[in-house]
Specification:
By secondary structure, the protein is mostly helical. Helices cover about 50% and strands about 5% of the residues. The chain has a two-stranded antiparallel sheet.
Length: about 170
């Protein structure tokens, strides 16, 4: 069995500058609505993974592409949704289908980003990487990867995407 120290025990092992960075980072994650702000901060500090950038990308995807499908007004411009509702479909179910479709599309997109290249491409074809930048858009050199691994846990509802499959 692996023993993980508590947040306070772990903080006590850090030099003062790193400790201050970890606390500040955890506070920022909390402000942004992370379910486990200390876990995200601990990972960024101890593993040098750009977790704040990862979280912010995923949070933006939820906010812009998935979460809008929780409000019936999102169906306003979707003619097929109007036809379904007029035919007797429950508007909540229509929203749920749209939201699940949006989630699947975002999941596919982050998997493609994480892949770093087209598996069917030629060796000479280009690939891609999502790179963290500082506040002035200068690359930090840290690659943002594994987005597909954290999409569910960044669900702002706290349901870890479970409510999409009701």
């Amino acid at each position: 069995m692996t023993f993980w120290p508590t947040w306070d025990e772990w903080l006590a092992t850090l030099p003062p500058g790193a400790r201050d960075s970890a606390v500040s980072l955890a506070e920022r994650f909390k402000e942004l609505g992370a379910q486990d702000p200390e876990g995200w901060a601990r990972s960024e500090i101890s593993e040098d993974i750009p977790q704040l950038a990862r979280f912010m990308v995923l949070r933006a995807l939820w906010r812009e592409a998935i979460s809008p499908w929780t409000d019936v007004s999102a169906l306003h411009d979707v003619a097929a949704a109007h036809r379904l509702i007029e035919s007797g479909a429950d508007p909540h179910d229509v929203l749920l289908v749209a939201r699940a479709g949006a989630y699947e599309a975002v999941f596919a997109a982050v998997c493609i980003l994480d892949e770093g290249g087209d598996p069917d491409a030629r060796e000479s074809d280009p690939g891609w990487h999502l790179i963290e930048t500082d506040a002035q858009c200068n690359p930090t050199g840290r690659e943002i990867g594994g987005l597909h691994e954290s999409l569910g846990e960044t669900d702002p509802s706290g349901n870890k995407d479970a409510d999409l499959w009701e």
